[in-house]
Amino acid sequence: MDQHYLPKIKLNVLIVNPISENIGGAEQCLNLFLAYAIDMYPEISFDFFPVKKENGKGESFTAKFKGEIKFLPPLEKGSFSYFKVPWYFILLFNKRGLFHNYDIIYANGQMAGLIGFFISKLTGKKLVIHLHQLLEPEALHDKAFNFQPESLTLFGVNLTKKIVNFIISSPNSIAISILNHIKKSLKCPEKVNVIYNAIDVAKFNSIDQDEIDNFAKTFGINRANKIVAFIGNLVPLKGVEYLIEAMEILKDSGYQEKLSLIIVGDVLDERFYSYKYQLTSMVKERNLENEVKFLGRINDVKIPFNLSDIVVLPSLKEGFAITIIEAMACGKPVIGTNLGGIAEIIQDRVDGILVPPRNPNAIADAINLLLGDSQLYKFISENGRKKAKQLDPETYTMKIVEVLQNSYKNEATGGNV
Fold first, then answer.
1. What is the pLDDT of residue 365?
2. pTM here?
3. What is the spatial distance between Cα 20 and Cα 50, in angstroms, rounded to a whole number?
């Protein structure tokens, strides 16, 4: 990709993003974008306005870009909810002097988008909101947030009117209904842009066998077993309980291969402790302690990806699941539920396996199929690698910068840019 494809436009960009030590897919995508954008577009400066969550301070994120990005004083959540709007507005109003020197606001995610709406309203600056998930209360994981998806969209659009653009990572059938509200409200469909997430494929292949062996030894994982992996946050929408049930089905059926399930990830915050307890209790009640291991949050996920034989994403709702692309980059076949962004990424039995949601029997059958058919396993693995290579980070970065530039120039930016 020719990094000079875009015109050189000097921009001061304010990035709004909630940060914590629990780095999710949206934060990973932001990390990737910044790592490439800083090098590819030196004429653009990026400052970071962190909205700190209660469960972490985000030191690992800030340290990565120290010296390259200016970090503004954070907006602390404190004892009030993110979505008690009057309090947020007052706090942002008190900080309004920080925001006037920027050309454009880039809000990463729906929570950041809500804050971005207020900053945009206070300053009149252009706003780009990058949506990685669906605008729904479940996706926001906040009980205090009671708006319907279209209510948030209309609320924000009514605040900002002509100064907002949207990027969405997964135009699946559920998201399309939300996009229709955005387009209808903006009276300008061109302001909705579809840009697929990307990954650094080389990063996931740069690993040696000793790293994998040491990781397995540390966590007591038997390398002789076939290893199934779930990698993600432990929240109800991920449907991990159905994968645990599938392991029980395979065990009870007398499956000839010895299987291990590794669950890599942890709760986002204290609201999901009960869900984690539900999962650990399931494992004990079904006598699966020898088969299922909870590894917690792992900073370098390329190791468990490369350790595993199959990656399963049994989600009940999902946007553009970067986990799938990461697994494909490692040559690991993926089993995912036939919904949302998962169904958009995976072509069934070509570069992955699709199963119905909430169906542990189908998950068990898919695991059995992949491990019992070496030719199909190899076919899906190779096709997955090819798909991952198509989502290169330079193209991803260029497309986002193009939206930022065009939004600043007040030009239409929509479509599959």
1. 97
2. 0.77
3. 9
Chain centroid to Cα 179, Å, comes to 19
* CB of 314 closer than 8 Å to CB of 363: yes
Confidence of residue 81 (pLDDT cuts 50, 70, 90): very low
Res 216 pLDDT > 70: yes
Q: Please say whether the dihedral angle defined by the alpha carbons of residues 306, 308, 311 and 312, taken in this order, is positive or negative.
A: negative
Torsion sign across C-alpha atoms 102, 193, 351, 339: positive
Instruction: Tell me which H or E stretch contains 186.
Output: helix 173-186
Q: Are 220 and 339 in contact (CB under 8 A)?
A: no
CA–CA gap between residue 324 and residue 250 (Å, rounded):
23
Structure tokens at 314: 């049994």
Neighbouring C-beta atoms of residue 46, cutoff 10 Å: 19
Q: Residues 238-275: pLDDT tens digits?
A: 999 999 999 999 999 887 678 999 999 999 778 899 99
- Give Dmax (Cα) for the chain: 67
Q: Contact at 8 Å (CB) between 62 and 46? A: no
User: Beta 70-71 vs 75-76: how paired, if at all?
Assistant: unpaired
Q: Are 108 and 130 in contact (CB under 8 A)?
A: yes
The answer on pLDDT for 280 being more than 70 is yes
